[in-house]
Amino acid sequence: MYGMVKDLYPICRSITGNGVRQTLRRIGEHVPLVTHEVASGTAVYDWTVPKEWNIRDAYIIDPSGRKLCDFKQNNLHVLNYSMPIHRKMSLAELKPHLFSIPDHPDWIPYRTSYYKETWGFCLSHKQLLELVEGEYEVVVDSSLEPGALTYGECLIKGESTDEVLLSCHTCHPSLCNDNLSGIALTTYIGKWLQQQGSLRYSYRLLFIPGTIGSITWLSRNEQAAKRIKHGLVVTCVGDGGPFSYKKSRRGEAEIDVASQHVLGHRNEPFNLIEWYPYGYDERQYCSPGFNLAVGSLSRSSHGQYDEYHTSADDLQLVQPEYLAQALQVYLDVIDVLEHNRVYVNLQPKCEPQLGKRGLYRAIGATHDGKSKEMALLWVLNLADGEHSLLAMAERSGIEFKAIKEAALALRDAGLLSGI
Ligand code: ZN
């Protein structure tokens, strides 16, 4: 995953354009990806697919002939979606088009102007303070023309047509945690899913530009959206911050309980965030006309880390071990979704004798295997057709994995039947 982040890092992405296409091609080397092109001007609910933006070069020449804000050195230097310009101007004329972060004078901010046609440059505050009076030559060699919005979609079929949605945004240029970590993690979950012999659910992986991408997808897939039973927005999964779970608008959906359960059993502090109508694409999936059970599982959350939307969200902030931990958490959540069923105890009148079925320790009064036996007892007791395995795990305080193993053992012994 880290290799993929590194590989995609130099590409200048935006909500449209060739950087996105290039990124999707790389993703398509790992998972079967269908790429969609939606023409500029297409109405998507209350929005319109914008013109396509592409950029070849951008820089400023200062009065001494020095090149500043060189796009080829760092693509964050150009205000994303800048209109083309090639003109000489005074510092006073240039300054309103320059963006910096006074609190972090060495970092370059990441700024966009998708829906207002303008141009601009981002630079370190240190560099901004060094600018002298005189004539500046400003060059943005970009195009903003009718084209398309490009997104990628991967469907991995399971036994059911009910779907689990994993959605990540693909619109940020050289920024690692937000959003390359999400792209890499989603891709590798896709690789893992493909390797599984059988899956209960079908999995839909979306690689879309933020906001306009999810709006576009939803507007073209109203029927398909009804098949989404659980979903997660995947972003900011590569930094060293504690895990965070932002609940879906529903708040108590299975994905909400499953995510909290998995994080709760890691024995590390995590942040639980109530639904709020800002953040990433969960805003669209959880709009009232859809109200899908889509939460967001991240490490540091949206806007809650210093490096967010700056050049410091780089290959040092994201580390392989953090990505690996996030992958494990996601796979654990998927394991819950795949195996969370309702069972009925076929011998509900008093406890069945587990010892004669080889399910209980042969010698009494030892503490070995106690938790395994407790899981068996909890499952037998709560398998009344009313409790899912996840509900049993939550009520007993036992990790889902142990409850699942107990249920499968009881089912194999003929004591439990799935409904
Ligand atoms: Zn962002």
Describe the model.
By secondary structure, the chain is α/β, with parallel strands linked by helices. The chain folds into three domains: 241 residues, 3-Layer(aba) Sandwich (Aminopeptidase), CATH 3.40.630.10; 94 residues, 3-Layer(bba) Sandwich (Glucose Oxidase, domain 1); 77 residues, Winged helix-like DNA-binding domain superfamily/Winged helix DNA-binding domain (Arc Repressor Mutant, subunit A, Orthogonal Bundle), CATH 1.10.10.10. The protein has 13 helices and 19 strands. Strand 14, helix 8 and strand 15 form a beta-alpha-beta unit. Helix 8 crosses helix 10 and helix 12 packs across helix 13. Bound molecules: zinc ion. Zinc ion (ZN) binds next to loops. The site of zinc ion has 3 residues, from loops.
Give the tally of structural domains.
3
What gross morphology would you assign?
A: elongated
Total number of β-strand segments? 19
Helical residue percent band:
25-40%
CATH topology of the largest domain: Aminopeptidase
CATH class of the largest domain: Alpha Beta
| pLDDT < 50 stretches | none
Termini, distance in Å? 38 Å
Largest sheet entry: 8 strands, mixed
If you average the pLDDT, what whole number results? 96
Percent of sequence in beta strands: 15-25%
Bound molecules: zinc ion
Which structural category fits the helices and strands? alpha/beta
CATH superfamily of the largest domain: Zn peptidases
Count of runs of 4 or more consecutive helical residues: 13
Biggest sheet, strands in spatial order? 1-10-12-11-13-16-14-15
**Which CATH architecture of the largest domain?**
3-Layer(aba) Sandwich
Please compute the radius of gyration using only Cα atoms: 25 Å
